[in-house]
Amino acid sequence: MSTLGIAAKEVFTAATDNAKVSDLQRNYVDPKAGGRLTTDFGVKVPDTDTWLKATNGSTVGPALLEDQHAREKIMRFDHERIPERVVHARGSAAHGYFKVYDSRAEKYTCAKVLTDPSRTTPTFVRFSTVQGPRGSADTVRDVRGFATKFYTQEGNWDLVGNNIPVFFIQDAIKFPDLVHAVKPEPHNEVPTGQSAHNNFWDFAGLQPESAHMVMWAMSDRGIPRSFRTMQGFGVNTFTLYNGTGEKFFVKFHWIPELGVHSFMWDEALKIAGQDPDFHRKDLEEAIVNGVFPVWKFGIQVIPEAKEHDFEFDILDATKLWPEELVPVEIIGEMTLNRTVDEYFSETEQVAFCTSHLVPGIGFSDDPLLQGRNFSYFDTQLSRLGVNWQQLPINRPVCPVMNFQRDGKSQHTITKSNVNYWPNRHDVNKPHALEEGAYRDHVRNIHGIAQRVRGSKFNEHFNQAQYFYNSLSGPEKTHLQNALAFELSHCDDPVVYRLYIDILLNIDFDLAKQTAMDVGGDMPTAAKRENKGERSARLSQTAFMPATPTIKGRRIAVLVADGFAEAELAALRALLKSAQATTFVIGPRRGLVYPAGGTVAKGSGVQADHHWEGQRSTMFDALLVPSGKHAELLRKSGRAVHWVREAFGHCKPIGAIGEGVTFVKEAIGLPEVEVASLTANEVVASYGVVTASQYSVGSAVHDAAKMTLSIG
Ligand code: HDD
Questions:
Q1: I need a labelling partner for 634 at 20 to 30 A (CA). Which of 183, 284, 403, 707 fits?
Q2: Structural domains of the chain in order of their starting residue, each with its CATH number
Q3: How far are the Cα atoms of 433, 629, 650, 658 from residue 624, in angstroms, in the given order?
Q4: Residue stretches of the chain with pLDDT short of 70
Q5: Which of 583, 171, 601 is nearest to 372 (CA)?
Q6: In this prediction, does ipTM exceed 0.90?
Q7: Ligand 1 atom 42: residue of nearest CA
Q8: Across the chain, what does the average pLDDT equal?
């Protein structure tokens, strides 16, 4: 975790204040400022350890209900919990800021947050899994929520998105069914944090509109390496207006600076047990170490007149807008630079609503969005109560003034004798449009009320196939394996047979492979031809950073007594300069001695972890320096396993000198002929970089850097 102590963290967080953080400071309480224990009402407490009792000589009788402090303490404890979110219950969050590069979006919108480059808009982002409860693991296969609150000068704008650009259903009325199906089954509340069960796949098989998103969830997007390495998507179609009466349809995109990276499924499974808070800690560790996560912000824009020009309906949330048809225009970026101060007050109480828009941004007739606009507002009432918008993390940084009054836990005291409009004092009157009031897009609506969907909403498989075709070879294999895992967990043959039928509409080979893997009947013919259409912008390999980087990566250095001390120090300095963090993994969590070092001489390097304490899964790369320690490493089954497991997960491995022999033996790399290497010669094979010897400035630097960046 964080390498900074509390004091350092305070200096660091002071440097990352913004308008919202300053606003929150109104509510800060600092227990270290010298205050002593009081009741909730300020009475000094003499004893918080023993309940008031009736005593008689040496006999200690019953506890007395009159002990106000004890009752207050227990009563407050009894009510500490609030309902967890019905979906996206497990989350972690951070503060940051958003800036646009220039005013180029002015042609589409009058929203200042999207057009004024002189502005820095504070943001608060909550990332989440969807299925699991608050206490579930981070690395499960699931969609990830990516919800951003922009505290703009015109009010709060909430962009409540996911790391997948499409959704399982087209119409919000299906949301309760979808969520019931994916959540633990009702009779036994199994499984936790998994979609691998009969009910989810039963629903997915019977609701073919989910096919496209199911492909995404089964791809590597369902197991991101980090929140920092995920794309984000607003998913729904919103609108932009520029004040001249023109309207545009828009989709919002977040693109991570570090590229899009995922776990391998085996890693994700293991980490769910080894460190269920892995993503939460990763976000905090990166920010506290100053490696601030950054996302570019992009928009896809379609003029109103072109709404019907596409073979899909642009208001259907199960469809993406291919970038080849509608390019993403990058207009700004967001940086997350500050961790939360208190989880409950900030991360748990933050409340996002898709209906929270600012002037210049509007809704569309996307039927999923319209239902969402009701649902989020409504759910906050049961989670937080009617005055939830006054909670510190939710309140805007611009003035709030209206005639909404009272309700449970009203915090404001409005000094006025009128609470209605119009009033004889003419106070708090509405704004004119020219004063920046929210402008509803004027439009003509007429028609016949019917329970229908747009005709193009009936096509469900084109884009599922398009996505699958766009994946690289390894990504396709991962997706096949994910389907095998998930459907193998379904024990009702009706369920997995049904899903193989769906796959027959996407790709015949994928359907056959799945049938073979999970035991369904072997299909004999595709239900639909695979037209082979693909995009260059859907595989996550398309989002590698232009310059490879190891920024924010965690690198384990495996050592035992007898390692080369100067070499280790130089390697760590080198990696630190590239903003990666090294962790020394040793035979004990204490001093590990270099070649020639002894306890008496006081030399030694502090190991961050014992090699039983952490596993290779929790690091992005592994380094084994040279030195006689290699002999000891060879004798430890756990050390050998570290190397084998890292190799099995395709992690970059760097080894030098005697470390090469150890690594070579551990994984059996016949291609690397260590003996024939000359000094400083570097060999890279299967993601393993070896060098016979290390010297600062040698080619091994570049090779190590390049190879580590593959991770
Ligand atoms: Fe939702 C939470 C994302 C469809 C109803 N949703 C929630 C969160 C995210 C999303 C990121 C967590 C917010 C937070 O961190 O507090 N949801 C989406 C996306 C969707 C989507 C990208 C499709 C485009 N959601 C959706 C529909 C409905 C809901 C169709 C209901 C009709 N979502 C909710 C909710 C939640 C929620 C039940 C639970 C907690 C909350 O709202 O504040 O109302």
A1: 707
A2: 43-80 (no CATH), 462-542 (1.20.1370.20), 547-710 (3.40.50.880)
A3: 66, 10, 16, 9
A4: 1-14, 597-602, 669-686, 692-711
A5: 171
A6: yes
A7: 376
A8: 92
